[in-house]
Write a structure and sequence with these properties.
The protein is of the alpha+beta class. The chain is built from 8 helices and 14 strands.
Length: about 290
């Protein structure tokens, strides 16, 4: 829900009491920096709340530009916070990635500052259409930019690991922008080949078969699977399978990709791309660049 009137930090969850800027007399350098940043950013709305933290709309008084500030309690997961900061720093500047402006913290909370992306996420877009499929040309425009961005992230050694409808924003020109690197990991490689892990993360509807099979996981290939599921959802207005059916999908070694969506034919080229992105065997699965 949007809030039109500007609110103070104190009104937004009583942030002063939560010590975004410390009130201690013997403040550390980090705390003093946090206090300076609180004065710089004028909060105006709560943009979203999740298990990992809250996101606020704010005005940067130095630039007079709108920003989004993600506030995370340091006790939540210090390693995860540091990972998100590192990932955003590496990929910021990539076209199709939400620009990262930096962070500040004290002993209780960390604030990550991003450009404000005006628009809605892809789940909201489908919801606004009563889950009617989008035209293929529109899907290609949105997802081509997303695929370019994700491919560049992989080239820079960052895997998103939570690609889904809710983590892709679009503006009024249908430009797709990836947000939320809270589950990002770093792609280690030996002799140019990506090293595998066994980390389990992401959202169930987008989870690649190798998670279920408990096999070693290449994060870039799980991003490719999730990209395929997201693209499928836009084209068909539904997920390719229910989460409880993933075992059957693995057993049958294929994902059913219908020739039509809501009576509208899907091109053979797009069906081929989806099939390659959602190939059960990750060794044979295409990379995200196939959708560029």
């Amino acid at each position: 829900m949007w809030i039109s009137d500007r609110l103070s930090f104190a009104h937004l969850g009583d942030l002063r009491n939560r010590n975004i800027a410390t009130q201690h007399n013997s403040a550390s350098e980090e705390d003093m920096h946090a206090q300076e940043q609180q004065q710089r950013y004028q909060l105006s709305a709560v943009l979203g709340t999740g298990s990992y933290g809250q996101v606020f709309v704010a005005l940067d008084s130095d630039t007079q530009q709108p920003v989004a500030i993600k506030v995370v309690g340091n006790q939540t997961n210090a390693h995860r916070i540091d990972n998100e900061i590192k990932a955003n720093s590496i990929v910021s500047g990539v076209r199709g990635i939400c620009p990262f402006r930096g962070h500040f913290r004290n002993n209780q909370e960390t604030c990550l500052v991003f450009d404000r992306i005006l628009g809605i996420d892809l789940f909201q877009l489908l919801e606004s259409r009563n889950y009617r499929p989008l035209p293929e040309l529109r899907v290609r425009k949105i997802m081509s930019r997303v695929a370019h961005a994700l491919s560049e992230c992989h080239r820079r050694g960052v895997a998103h690991r939570d690609i889904k409808l809710e983590n892709i924003m679009i503006d009024d020109q249908d430009r797709g922008t990836i947000i939320d690197f809270g589950l990002a990991s770093f792609i280690d490689s030996v002799d140019g080949k990506e090293m595998a892990t066994r980390d389990l993360c992401g959202s169930m509807e987008y989870m690649a078969p190798e998670f279920v099979l408990q096999k070693s996981i290449e994060a870039s290939k799980t991003d490719a699977w999730a990209l395929g599921v997201t693209t499928f959802a836009l084209l068909y207005g539904a997920f390719p399978y229910a989460t409880e059916e993933l075992g059957d999908v693995i057993e049958n070694q294929c994902v059913d990709i219908p020739a039509k969506a809501d009576g509208v034919r899907i091109s053979e080229d797009m069906r081929r791309i989806l099939s390659k992105l959602m190939t059960i065997d990750p060794a044979r699965r295409a990379g995200v660049e196939i959708l560029k």
